[in-house]
Each structure stands twice: as C-alpha cells, then as structure tokens.
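_Backbone structure tokens_
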Amino acid sequence: MSRRKVPRPLDFGNRAVVADWLEGLRLAFDEIDDAVTDMLRPPRRREPGPALHAEHYRAARAQVADALAYAGARAAPRRGKRRS
C-alpha cells in the first residue's frame, strides 16, 4: 500500500505563492467562462459542440475545486443530481 503525500496548505503569507495560486484560479474561471459563453451562442455559431463544452466545463470546475481545497476551503454540498 502506498502512502499518499499530503500537500502543504497554501501559504497566504507568501505573496509569490498566492499570486501563482490566484493566476491558476483565474485561468480556470476563464476556461469556464469560455465554455459557457460558447454554449449560449446560437447553435450554428458554437465552436466545440455540446460534448466538448461539458468536458471543458467539468475539467475547469475540477481545477477551481482543487484550488479552493488547496486554500483550505471546505467542499460545498452538491445541489441536485448531476449526470455523468
């Protein structure tokens, strides 16, 4: 059995570390915004299509959740039932 390495918590006293963390969080939010913005376009003007929208959104959402967990935030309860 392998031991999982526990990541160190985000050091809010280190400006460089916090700046990197915020940059990663902003990139993930931008990816979510891009996916949702494209989903809201008229169907013929959409670029990647519904399957890729969902894939991009889920990946970016996971990045945001991981970043928040790294900063010490507790996971919010999931609302409703999600489709896989």
